[in-house]
Write a structure and sequence with these properties.
With 138 residues, this protein is mainly α. It contains eight helices and no strands.
Amino acid sequence: MNWEELAVELGARALELANDGKQPNEDAAASTLARVTRSVRAIERAEGALSLAVMARVAGLSPYHFLRTFERLTGVTPHRYVRRMRLREAAVRLAREKAKVLDIAFDCGFGDVSNFNRAFLEEYGMSPRRYRKMANRE
């Protein structure tokens, strides 16, 4: 979770505590679903990282409501969604290309190879090099 999402999450928890732990009704209206879908498309088209504020603005929601709705509808935070999207791209490239793991990590938006290796291991249960070897055997 990045700092911006953490700040919104802390604000949400504070509101819950102020309301005796009760959360507002979270049934997503069709218009809200469409708004979050629009932001998912913007994430997928974006060349660089989008901030939570920008994604919320694209969806036409407050950052708090956007984060809560996005996570409820997709099962992950926007930050985690972006990370998974980058890891999927890296996995495809590792299986198809002979480029260095380091180059693929940087091309897919990771700032350093150690973060990439850790995230890849967490997502796929193996290192990028092992994934490449297994993909090339099949």
